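Hi support team,

I submitted a single chain yesterday and got back a structure, but I'm not sure I'm reading the token output correctly. Could someone confirm the output below corresponds to the sequence I sent? I've pasted both exactly as they appear in my results page.

Thanks,
R.
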Amino acid sequence: MKTLDNLLLLYDRQIKTTDQALNLLYNSYSNSGREFEEVLRIQQQLLEFQKMKLKAMVAYQTSLAQINYVTAKTY
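Hi R., thanks for writing in. Yes, this is the structure output for that exact sequence:
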């Protein structure tokens, strides 16, 4: 569980950093009209990080559900 927590924090940081880079590229592209492929590449990278974060969240919730099942925890 601790590993998944750390993984989620890592993905949050990666998403934030990639989003900042994407905003800078948007500004650069709007000023010069160049670097369109780079904008697309960073957008794709951002989507990959978001997808990996969602997969980690699913794994976290699945692990939590398994622990609750094994320990017979009810709500």
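A quick pointer for reading it: The longest helix spans residues 36-70. Let us know if anything else looks off.

Best,
Support desk
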